[in-house]
């Protein structure tokens, strides 16, 4: 393999690792806020106590949970999934045919789900 291709491959791998780690770290608190706002929709007084008044009412919780967080979570999840799936390619590009088949099935399934999430998100915000 030519040296410039190896260098490009290393840069892409580093970028994918940074994207995967960053989006993974961003998904954690975002998912936690989503859980809290969902519980707030069910039991408003409980979350007001836990969050020290940050989520203090049903309107704030419903706006956060139903309008803001879905687009943030879906965007972060899509980027995280793509980066992580592509990070697995060097591991599966060896001679093990079963592993390559499993990777390709995972990759195709992930892309189908990503397209579905994008279409659903667009349709939700258009209507």
Q: How does this structure look, described?
A:
With 127 residues, the protein is mainly alpha-helical. The protein has one domain (3-126). It has five helices and no strands. The protein has helices at residues 3-42, 44-50, 58-87, 89-92, 97-126. α1 runs antiparallel to α3 and α3 packs antiparallel against α5. The radius of gyration is 19 Å and the shape is elongated. The relative contact order is 0.10. The model is unreliable at 1-8 (pLDDT under 50).
List how many beta strands DSSP finds: 0
| Bulk shape | elongated
Radius of gyration: 19 Å
Distance between the termini: 50 Å
Output mean pLDDT.
81
Structural class: mainly alpha
Report the total helices: 5
Could you give the order of the helices and strands?
HHHHH
Provide the fold topology.
Blueprint: H1 3-42, H2 44-50, H3 58-87, H4 89-92, H5 97-126
Helix pairs in contact: 1-2, 1-3, 3-5
């Amino acid at each position: 393999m030519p040296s410039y291709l190896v260098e490009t491959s290393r840069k892409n791998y580093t970028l994918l690792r940074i994207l995967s780690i960053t989006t993974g770290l961003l998904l954690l608190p975002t998912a936690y806020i989503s859980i809290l706002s969902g519980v707030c929709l069910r039991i408003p007084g409980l979350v007001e106590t836990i969050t020290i008044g940050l989520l203090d009412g049903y309107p704030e919780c419903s706006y956060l949970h139903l309008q803001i967080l879905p687009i943030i979570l879906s965007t972060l999840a899509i980027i995280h999934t793509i980066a992580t799936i592509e990070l697995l390619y060097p591991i599966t590009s060896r001679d093990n045919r079963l592993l390559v088949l499993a990777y390709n099935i995972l990759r195709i399934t992930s892309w189908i789900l990503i397209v579905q999430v994008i279409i659903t998100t667009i349709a939700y915000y258009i209507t």
